[in-house]
Write a structure and sequence with these properties.
Structural class: alpha/beta
Low-confidence stretches: 11-31, 254-259, 547-590
Number of strands: 11
Number of helices: 22
Radius of gyration: 28 Å
Largest sheet: 7 strands, mixed
Mean pLDDT: 79
Distance between the termini: 26 Å
Length: about 600
């Protein structure tokens, strides 16, 4: 795990009418609302005759059958949503992607099943409504309900005919995760998070997102310390990238206030530093390297977390975006929002491409590079199976999420990637979407929200062992308690500093204390103070590790037991360097 940066001293929905466009590519069509093609517009008007006429008379190229509207839905999904089975059958025969994840992460079959269930409910309620209307002699309402009942009975029959056809094309879970045992383990872990999240009262709600995100880092670093590196810069949370859309430039380290030529040099030095850190991790043989990213904008108060993950097995740097295919810096159902999101995605691709180029330069002469070639970059548009990512699709709970869950989603996906190193990010996300599809579509947002609540609960429990560093009792340990602390961010910066450096150099903290005692100016009294606190914590953690042999990924540490009477201090004879008979020293856990 790469050393993090030493903390600084504390002293010192609307629609637009214009040429319809796919999110992936431009295409020429009539000026329609919501990014629809003529075929999509006919389906939304529930005009099956017009839709079939277009399919029968127009060449496929002019209908743009694979086009996606502003709501990330293709024509087949719209046909399933509006109960047009004949149109859907024609589109399946025409080769439209049956398994495209549209809307908020659903396939055409999910829309068809939901349409059938909604129609069944209307049919079931119709008789009672007709009876009530007849008792009140509301004969027009009686006629409306009877017509509605007949219509939805027809939709149920049509969906019963369509769904088996869609099921023929639906991917099995094994198509996402091939190994049965691995798939079962993955699904059990996701189900456990969701179950725990339903009953959890944990309040994430960070006033300082960096502090809470750093807490998850501590959890991940401690859990995967043998297989993973954590790379950062001088900012509190990862790589700070500021985007200038007006000038089509990017700035690193919040340096957009300096001249362009100086900024270019600064960016280059920054990239080299990151590449050096990652290269060192790779040469040590780690399986995964985490590079957290914080995005900002020069003209707006905008902060959003992303993640870059280097994976040894795939020999790739994968970009994770909680919003999905691309960053939703603005609402993406508007022309301006889509354009800005695309520009942001393009700028980020330039940033990450430069970093990967620098990394390949650093590895050029290594045996791994000679054997495997250049490391490849995979952007979020390649690794996310749905246009809408988890954060965009989740329901919201202001008391829980506070300023947002982008950092938590990024770190959660990084942890799942570390826990299942044989799976790509696309497989990890695809498996979660597949699990989500087992629920009713209307429950999907709650499924994702409860997933995060359950994950936050695990992080809170697994980091409870750090409570003494914050002068808290185990029973007092909570996100709320950290939010109330004025210096929580500062303390956690020291904790990350010591933990990350100790993972590379086990005697790092002891060495820093020794330097302080030797009056080395590089170590001040403040660092020595927190180093001593960390050593006491380290001794306690060593005791816990001896008495609790467990896998923190699946079974988190329980709350620390109530204080009991301290056992008598025992004397243990140990050898010392340069001594013959050894010396007596006290050895106990504090």
């Amino acid at each position: 795990m790469s050393a993090s940066t030493k903390p600084a001293s504390n002293r010192s929905k609307s629609s637009s009418s214009f040429s319809a466009k796919s999110k992936e590519e431009d295409y020429d069509a009539e000026d329609l609302e919501n990014g629809n093609t003529r075929l999509m517009a006919a389906i939304e008007e529930e005009d099956a005759d017009l839709a079939i006429e277009l399919l029968d008379t127009e060449p496929a190229e002019s209908l743009f059958l694979d086009a996606i509207n502003y709501y990330n839905m293709n024509a087949l999904q719209l046909a399933c949503k509006y109960g047009l089975a004949d149109v859907a059958m024609r589109l399946i025969d025409a080769g439209v992607d049956v398994n495209y994840l549209g809307g908020r992460g659903f396939r055409a079959i999910d829309f068809a099943i939901q349409t059938r269930e909604d129609a069944r409910k209307i049919v079931a309620d119709a008789d009672s409504q007709i009876k009530l209307a007849a008792e009140d002699e509301q004969w027009s309402l009686v006629c409306e309900w009877q017509a509605d009942k007949i219509k939805h009975q027809s939709i149920v029959r049509e969906m019963d005919r369509l769904i088996p056809e869609l099921e023929k094309h639906a991917p099995d879970a094994s198509a996402i995760i091939g190994e049965d045992k691995l798939r079962e383990q993955f699904n059990k872990q996701i189900a456990r998070y969701v179950r725990n999240g339903q009953s959890s009262r944990v309040q994430w709600n960070p006033t300082n997102g960096n502090t809470m995100a750093s807490l998850i880092f501590l959890h991940i670093m401690r859990t995967y310390k043998e297989s993973q590196c954590y790379v950062t810069d001088n900012s509190e949370f990862g790589i700070y990238t500021v985007l200038d859309f007006e000038r089509d430039r990017f700035y690193l380290h919040d340096k957009y206030r300096i001249e362009d030529n100086k900024n270019d040099k600064s960016n280059k030095r920054f990239m080299k530093n990151l590449a050096d850190q990652v290269a060192q991790c790779i040469q040590r043989g780690v399986k995964q390297v985490i590079l957290p990213v914080v995005l900002g904008e020069t003209t707006a108060d905008y902060r959003h977390a992303n993640m870059l993950i280097f994976r040894t097995q795939e020999w790739t740097v994968e970009h994770y975006e909680p919003h999905g295919h691309m960053n939703s810096i603005q609402i993406d159902t508007e022309k301006e929002g889509i354009a800005k999101n695309k520009k942001m995605h393009s700028l980020l691709e330039r940033v990450y491409s430069q970093f990967v180029d620098e990394l390949n330069k650093r590895l050029k002469r290594t045996a791994a590079h000679k054997k495997r070639g250049d490391i490849q970059l995979r952007m979020s548009s390649d690794v996310c199976p749905s246009h809408f990512g988890f954060q965009a699709a989740q329901n919201h709970d202001e008391e829980f999420e506070g300023i947002g869950l982008c950092a938590m989603w990024s770190l959660f996906v990084a942890e799942m990637s570390a826990a299942y190193p044989t799976l790509t990010l696309r497989q990890v996300q695809g498996a979660i979407y597949h699990k989500m599809s087992e629920y009713d579509m209307k429950m999907a947002g709650d499924f994702l929200l409860n997933l995060m609540k359950g994950y936050a609960t695990q992080v809170l429990e697994s980091t409870r062992l750090y409570c003494s560093f914050f002068d808290l009792e185990p029973a007092e340990w909570s996100f709320s308690a950290l939010n109330r602390m004025k210096d929580a961010s500062y303390r956690i910066s020291w904790l990350v500093w010591f933990e990350s450096n100790t993972s590379v150099e086990p005697g790092f903290v002891e060495h820093r204390i020794h330097l302080f005692k030797q009056f080395d100016p590089d170590v001040d009294e403040e660092e020595a103070h927190y180093a001593e606190k960390y050593l006491r914590l380290k001794r306690r953690l060593a005791c816990l590790e001896d008495s609790h042999k467990m896998d923190i990924v699946l079974d988190v540490l329980p709350p620390a037991p109530e204080k009991k009477k301290r056992p008598k201090k025992t004397m243990k004879k140990t050898g010392s360097v340069g001594s013959k008979g050894g010396r007596k020293t006290r050895r106990w856990c504090k």
